[in-house]
Amino acid sequence: MNKAIIEVNGLAAGYVKGLNILQGIDLVIKEKEIISIIGPNGAGKSTLLKAIMGLIPISGGRLYINGNELANFKSHELIKKGIGYVPQVANVFPSLTIEENLEIGLWTNTKNSKEGKKEIFEMFPILFEKKREKAGNLSGGQRQLLALGRALITKPDVLLLDEPSAGLSPIAIDEVFNSINEINNKGVSILLVEQNAKRALSFCDRGYVLDQGKNSYTGTGRDLLDDPNVIDLYLGKL
Amino acid sequence: MIEQLGNGLLLGLIVAIASVSLSLLYGVTRIVNFAHGEIIALGAVLTLFFSSSPESSFLYLDRFSPLGSSFIVSSIASILLCGVFGALLELCLFRPLRKNNYGNVAVLVITIGLSIFLRHIFLLFASARPASYALDLQKREDYFGIQLTPRNVQVLIIGSVVMILVGLFLSYTKTGRAMRAVRDSSELASVSGINSDYIITLTWVFSSMLAGFTGIIQGVINNVRWNMGFLILLLIFAGSILGGIGTSFGAMFGGFIIGMLVQLSVGLSFMDGHTEAKNAIALALMILILLIRPQGIFGSKERIS
Predict the structure, then answer these.
(1) Domains, in order of start, for chain B
(2) How far apart (Å, rounded) are the C-alpha atoms in residues A235 and A196?
(3) Which domains does chain A have, with CATH numbers?
(4) B191, B194, B303: residue with CB nearest A53
(5) What are phi and psi of B85, to 5 degrees?
(6) pLDDT by residue for chain B (305 residues), tens digit each?
């Protein structure tokens, strides 16, 4: 059986002390899995990723990464533990060139900097073509690819993606999801937060439906897509 | 006006280096540091303190001159101490404020308070009279039509080399790149593996050392005063904003332009007898340029998506 990379038990966290957005979340991400988290606005999806990443304080519950309890670790230390994270907005350094953006991802791992960049450029040729351009000039889809590349260059075991399709054109969304698939095929687990629930569930191995900071439904992507309760509450009828 | 060109180059250089240090600090920490002028003055005052002879009456601690009269050693020690001072400001004051999510306006007011506090500390230890370093007097000579003393030329060369080194550091070193990354987004830098707090502390050290260096060359060219940093602060802000606040190269350029304009405007015929108004023309021009280019000369409008 694949081992768990991230395990979250009864996680409570929030932006303000005493006001928890997450109120006891349970979640497991195993090796090579794609996990989707869906739910209505304000359910705590992005907050969960931020709590795992150490960007907001965890006030209760437990967080294990590769078997070690690492709740409230600093973000930059978690990168060394094999976690990669792509925020929803402001996910590239706009005043840095594309190449420099990738080099920032190499801060923790300078040994294989040339190889690391080469791999990313092979995966995303558009980034190679524009490597001397400022990231601030890229289109939304290209920014998302650069953000994926910047996170991937740290060689993570798991990649946390916060709404990678937000604000993108249908073509760019396809491109981003194809890239995520490709990344997963290379053995990187994916934890995906998505508003586009149907697409996310049809794409993932397992899904979690969050509501008001709590687990609401859990199952394989297919099961959740067919679950009448989930359809009624979140997916809507066709 | 041409006779002011030499002075213009010197003031331009001072404002340019100070603007880079202020702009870098603002870019990385988002702190509008009104106490930056006092860090400039600290460099100058410390150098005077270390290098003045035991007979000096500028400092009340006049019988204490640990580094004798070696100006170079005193300058290096002062620049390093300015770096330490910057680190202490970050660790003891600005980091706790940041961790407690103090708003920008609150922090700005704190820097104004810090500026007034530090300025009066200088006044407490040093007299209100301007003082000069124990350097021999030099005559102005003609360099390609520009009137400068040999020491002024040395200052121009050293200052230009420092600016080039700063540019190379920010562009091509790993730490310089990390500073620019934290300037864009400290949160994204953190989740990319960079210890943002460490980079912010380094920025304080680097910026304060540059500010201290500016104070020393200002002291060499003119003299050392307790409020010398405060007097030049407005020009530094103007230079940073003109170039594009947060952009180091823009600040360098903007600072140089402002410094030059201030000094050159002294040579205008209608300024005869009104040289104290020399800042007016440069600052009016800054306002005009910003009306046309609100992001500053080198600031860029970014695509939002």
Answers:
(1) 2-128+147-292 (1.10.3470)
(2) 9
(3) 33-55+74-208+218-235 (3.40.50.300)
(4) B191
(5) -60, -45
(6) 667 888 899 999 999 999 999 999 998 998 999 999 999 999 999 998 888 776 665 555 554 556 666 889 989 999 999 999 999 999 999 999 998 888 889 999 999 999 999 999 988 877 778 888 878 888 888 888 888 888 999 999 999 999 999 999 998 999 999 999 999 999 999 999 999 999 999 999 999 999 999 999 999 999 999 899 998 998 999 999 888 877 788 899 999 999 998 888 887 777 777 777 788 887 888 888 889 888 888 776 544 43
A63 φ/ψ angles, rounded to the nearest 5 degrees: -130, 120
A166 touches chain B (CB under 8 A): no
Q: A16 in contact with B at a CB cutoff of 8 Å?
A: no
**A188: phi then psi, degrees, rounded to nearest 5:** -90, 125
Q: How far is A93 from chain B (nearest CA, A)?
A: 6
Closest partner CB to A93 (pick from B174, B188, B196): B188
